[in-house]
From TrEMBL:
Pfam families: YceI. This is YceI family protein. It comes from Chitinophaga agri. SMART domains: YceI (SM00867). Keywords: Signal. InterPro entries: Lipid/polyisoprenoid-bd_YceI, TTHA0802/YceI-like_sf. Residues 40-221 form the Lipid/polyisoprenoid-binding YceI-like domain. It comes from the Bacteria. Residues 1-25 form the signal peptide.
């Protein structure tokens, strides 16, 4: 029988899964990684899904797509998460063609733009990383989350390009004997990691939303 427990949360990159607005991730300075003790679960990259969504000002021309997780693990001890980390391949970023409705634009063109030095500079910074720094129980009587069934607050260092900041957000985690699953949807401010188009405050940068929504469905398995 599965039970819901503290556990691991995932990811990053620019913009997140579709749907209504979500929880704003608390953003702070980089913190020390949590010690990983207990049983190791390996992230199943074929069963893990990470989504992104971003829009222009006013919500016009929403863009959304996916990014692949290439490696990672999490540790569970006595029914609780003790630590973990994962990596994302920014060169795997793809835009869903359904989000590009302009006749003169292609989703593959946007893929290249986001991977270029204008945004993620994937040629020089191909990997984004998340490292767990803390896990606490989620108290729905004290905090309200737009994520149904949130069980934990996860904190971790998120590295994008050459910048690392700590983020905290709600997650729903379920653990069984052979696997752990986790779901989350939250918002980050891309400019906190220095991701700006052209220059900060420029009209070109202004028309792109600073808020990026990140969503994931994570599965990790015991080896």
């Amino acid at each position: 029988m599965k039970q819901t427990v503290p556990a691991f949360i995932l990811l990053l990159t620019m913009a997140a899964c579709g749907g209504a607005s979500t929880d704003q991730a608390k953003t702070e300075e980089k913190k020390e990684a949590a010690a990983a003790t207990g049983v190791a679960y390996t992230i199943d990259t074929t069963a893990t899904s990470v989504q992104w969504r971003a829009t222009h000002k006013g919500g016009f021309a929403p863009r959304f797509g996916t990014i692949k997780v290439t490696d990672g693990s999490l540790n569970v001890e006595n029914g609780a998460l003790t630590g973990g980390s994962f990596e994302v391949n920014l060169n795997s970023l793809t835009t869903d063609p359904a989000s590009v409705t302009e006749k003169d634009k292609k989703s593959t063109d946007l893929d290249g733009h986001l991977k270029s030095a204008d945004f993620f500079d994937a040629a020089n910074h191909p990997t984004a990383k998340f490292v767990i720094t803390g896990v606490t129980a989620y108290d729905s009587t004290k905090e309200k989350s737009l994520l149904p069934g949130a069980t934990n607050l996860i904190s971790g260092n998120l590295t994008l390009k050459d910048s690392t900041l700590n983020i905290t957000f709600p997650a729903q985690v379920t653990i069984a004997e052979g696997d752990v699953t986790a779901k989350a949807k939250f918002i980050i401010d891309r400019t906190a990691w220095g991701i700006n188009y052209k220059t900060e405050g420029s009209p070109e940068n202004w028309v792109i939303s600073k808020e990026v929504e990140i969503g994931f469905d994570l599965k990790a398995v015991k080896k």
